[in-house]
Amino acid sequence: MLVAVLAGGEGRRIGGSKPQRLLAGETLLERALATVRYWDKKPVVVTRYDLPDTGCETIRDRSGIEGPLAGLAAAFDHARETEAACLLLLACDMPFLPGDVPERLAWMVDGGANCAMARSGGRDIPVCSMWSVAALGRALPQYLEGEDRSLFGLANMLNYVTVQWDAGEGDPFFNINTPEDLAEAGERLG
């Protein structure tokens, strides 16, 4: 399994450079990497611009593609090069990820699903998903020939399945997009 952390968003709604925004004394990217290193000692960071050294391999979004799909495409290329069977895709702006994400998503992909996506609070979370590298190899080139550039569109093409998490005390897939979201996350951690 390859774990890829998406850190390429421009962060316009939060004032730019989202991966470098501070939450409880750490950048969002540092927090994300601290979490995923429990799952994979060698995660990769996928970005479209220069970031400070993270101690992880950094790969560039695939050129000519916008949004998270560019990160998935680049991570897919890396997964094939390293002969990973599956790819866990995560965004750096979700500071409350449950510890059982890899096991629960992998269980579905190992069981034959082409893509397994987290679901919480009535919504599917495409930036918290596990993809079969073999299935991506068959579908991604064809998908990129079309007009759609969403992770949902590609996941739909692969007949994705969802894995439900309880939102309970707060959405475990809460993501930070605005200064208000950052303040709310700080309160949750406080």
Automatic annotation (TrEMBL):
Keywords: Cytoplasm, GTP-binding, Magnesium, Metal-binding, Molybdenum cofactor biosynthesis, Nucleotide-binding, Nucleotidyltransferase, Transferase. The keyword Nucleotidyltransferase applies. The keyword Glycosyltransferase does not apply. Residues 4-146 form the MobA-like NTP transferase domain. GO terms for molecular function: nucleotidyltransferase activity. This is Molybdenum cofactor guanylyltransferase. It comes from Qipengyuania polymorpha.
